Recover the amino acids of this structure.
């Protein structure tokens, strides 16, 4: 009896070994393409379904998904790039830097074989992944967009209704934002501390946002040749002061000392408005328990509206051994059906109009992208921004006037960082 049982166990093990061997042999006949991206838990579940669907319908290529949290993504990928072990398909977080270091493949030769491939996308979202050796936004194309984005104004409809205030619209100016935002600031529990505010801007002190506000004042953060920082110009000083005054003077936005969270406070119903990337659409759909809407960004004193346009490009690792298969994977990941799935299940904004819908959100985003500009990055920008940011703290935390902080000496220091 024992011998019979042992024989059955051995037979079972042989069957398992045969199945594993057969599967290994089958996989060995496929070209494996490693695909790296950052994902939340919800996104990971959907992306796994997307990958599984590809693997079932493509007998010669198999996608191997490698994902992690956004906070860990760039450092992890830099380690892999340094070691020469980077995945074949990369969701790019630092396009200018990586293209400059030669780790991204120029997609021009592949796209030349696919007439009309780029025609289905928002053109400016495609241009976001171009790099000419100096700045992004022009030159060879190093990635194709999985989704699209720009900045818009999100607002709490229920809060506006409760206060009897009309919803934001295209007539709003920078001044309107301040005037209306001030009406929502309250100490709701009577403890002497404000716990409800009119506005939050999660990325208030980054180069993209500062450039956006500067455009409302008629300027830009960087000179056209990217050799000079223009924050010391009248438009730059006015923009910095306007941003600082949102917290320190007008107090429609919490000061840094009062901040316990950013978008989470909007999700909890403690904020009337938030200026954010359209990607927040997917976050608020899942977490906000109130009615909310969107509106165009307000118009600046110059009569201009600065709307930076972006995207999440995916690229081919320049040292990949399976570049043709990697491009097939990219075409699938940016396809209409895949983007429709992400938009339907996650509300992730698609990079192609034919994957959208007739919702207010998608129509407003499409209009903003069409009238917006491609925010151009370049390798020296981060180092220069680090210098700028250190002086911003003196304007915001020490409540010093912008014109007293961003002197010609400071601007020279910033320009020196640009020249490295």
């Amino acid at each position: 009896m024992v011998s019979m049982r042992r024989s059955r166990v051995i037979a079972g093990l042989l069957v398992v070994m045969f199945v594993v061997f057969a599967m290994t042999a089958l996989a060995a006949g496929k070209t494996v393409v490693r695909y790296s991206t950052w994902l939340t838990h919800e996104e990971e579940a959907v992306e796994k379904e997307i990958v599984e669907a590809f693997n079932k319908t493509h007998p010669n290529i198999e996608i191997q998904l490698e994902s992690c949290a956004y906070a860990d993504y760039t450092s992890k990928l830099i380690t892999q790039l340094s070691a020469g072990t980077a995945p074949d398909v990369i969701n790019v977080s630092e396009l200018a830097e990586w293209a400059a270091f030669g780790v991204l493949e120029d997609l021009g030769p592949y796209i030349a074989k696919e007439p009309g491939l780029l025609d289905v996308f928002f053109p400016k979202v495609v241009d976001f992944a171009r790099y000419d050796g100096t700045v992004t936004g022009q030159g060879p194309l190093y990635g194709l967009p999985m989704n699209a984005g720009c900045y818009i104004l999100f607002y709490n409809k229920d809060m506006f209704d409760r206060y009897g205030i009309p919803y934001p619209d295209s007539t709003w100016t920078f001044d309107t934002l301040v005037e209306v935002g001030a009406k929502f600031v309250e100490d709701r529990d009577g403890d002497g501390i404000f716990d409800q505010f009119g506005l939050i801007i999660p990325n208030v002190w980054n180069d993209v946002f500062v450039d956006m506000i500067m455009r409302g004042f008629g300027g830009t953060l960087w000179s056209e040749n990217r050799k000079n920082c223009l924050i010391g110009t009248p438009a730059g000083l006015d923009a910095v002061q306007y941003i600082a005054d949102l917290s320190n003077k007008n107090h429609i936005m919490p000061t840094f000392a009062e901040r316990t969270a950013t978008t989470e406070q909007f999700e909890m119903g403690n904020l009337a408005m938030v200026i954010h990337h359209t990607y927040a659409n997917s976050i608020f759909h899942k977490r906000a328990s109130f009615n909310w809407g969107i509106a165009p960004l307000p118009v600046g004193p110059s009569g201009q509206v600065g709307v930076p346009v972006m995207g999440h490009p995916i690229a081919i690792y320049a040292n990949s051994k399976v570049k043709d298969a990697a491009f097939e994977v990219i075409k699938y990941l940016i396809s209409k059906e895949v983007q429709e799935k992400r938009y339907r299940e996650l509300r992730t904004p698609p990079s192609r109009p034919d994957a959208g819908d007739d919702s207010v959100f998608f129509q407003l985003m499409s209009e903003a992208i069409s009238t917006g500009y491609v925010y151009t990055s370049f390798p020296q920008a981060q180092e220069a921004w680090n210098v700028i940011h250190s002086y911003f703290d003196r304007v915001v935390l020490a409540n010093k006037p912008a014109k007293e902080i961003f002197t010609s000496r400071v601007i020279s220091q910033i320009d020196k960082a640009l020249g490295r």
